Amino acid sequence: MTNYKPILQECAMRYGTGMGLLWTFKFMLFPLGLRIPFLQLLFIILTLGVPILGYLFAKNFRERYCDGSIAFTRAFLFTTFMYMFASILVAVTHYIYFRYIDDGFVFHIYRSLLEQLKNTTEVGLAAPLEQLEEAIDLLAALTPLEITFQLISQNMFYGMLMAIPTALVVMRKKKIQ
Q1: Is residue 175, in this structure, part of any structural domain at all?
Q2: How far, in Å, CA of 139 to CA of 2, rounded?
Q3: Quick check: 55 and 166 in contact, CB under 8 A?
Q4: Does any domain span residue 134?
Q5: Nearest to 11 by CA among 79, 72, 76, 68
Q6: Per the domain annotation, does 21 fall within a domain?
Q7: Residues 168 and 72: beta-carbon distance below 8 Å
C-alpha cells in the first residue's frame, strides 16, 4: 500500500471550503449588522480573524502534508488557491443574496447614512459627500451578477495580498539531520 499525499490544489480546496464557509457566515452578518451594531462588531472581528485562520490553515498544511517544511512558493500557491476557492464558494452566497434577498436594502441603508452625515456636517465636506453619493448610486445600478463578480475579484485580489505575508511566516526549510 502506498502513502497517498494529496496534491496542493486538493488541500487548498479542502481548506478553502472551510474558509469559504466562514466567509459565508461572515457575509450573512453584514446586512444584519447594518441594523444590529453587535452583529456588525462580530462581522469586523471575524474579518480581522481571516488572516489568522489563513495562517493556521497554511501551518497545518505544512505540518500534515509537507513533513514540516515548505518553500515560500509552495506556501504562497497554497494560500492563494485556498483564498481563491473560498472566494468562489462565497460568491454563490453573494449572488443568492443580491439576486433574491437584498432588493436594494444595503444601498438604501448607505444612502440614509449618507443623508444623516450630510445634515450634520459642515459645508466644506459637501463635495466629497456628493462623490460618495455618486459612487453608491453607481454600485446600486450594478446587477447582482456584476456585484458578485466585483466581490469575487476583490476577494481574490486581497487573498493574494494576504498570501504573501502568510507564506513568509509559514515557510520553513527542511531540517538537516
Answers
A1: no
A2: 53
A3: yes
A4: no
A5: 79
A6: yes
A7: yes
Domain limits at 15? 8-101+147-170
Q: What is the DSSP letter of 123?
A: G
The C-alpha angle 8, 10, 14, rounded to 5 degrees, equals: 115
Query: What are the start-end ranges of the H helices in the chain?
Result: 8-33, 37-65, 72-96, 105-120, 126-140, 144-170
Q: At what angle do helices 144-170 and 37-65 cross, to 10 degrees?
A: 50
Note the pLDDT tens digit of each residue in 26-57: 999 999 999 999 999 999 999 999 999 999 99
Number of separate domains in the chain? 1
pLDDT over threshold 80, residue 126: no
Q: Is residue 49 part of a domain?
A: yes
Helix axes 8-33, 37-65, angle to 10 degrees: 170
pLDDT digits (tens, 9 = 90+) for 84-100: 999 999 999 999 999 99
70 φ/ψ angles, rounded to the nearest 5 degrees: -155, 140
Give me 152's grid cell.
469575487
Q: How many residues are there in the chain?
A: 177
If one counts every other C-beta atom within 10 angstroms of the C-beta of residue 134, the result is: 10
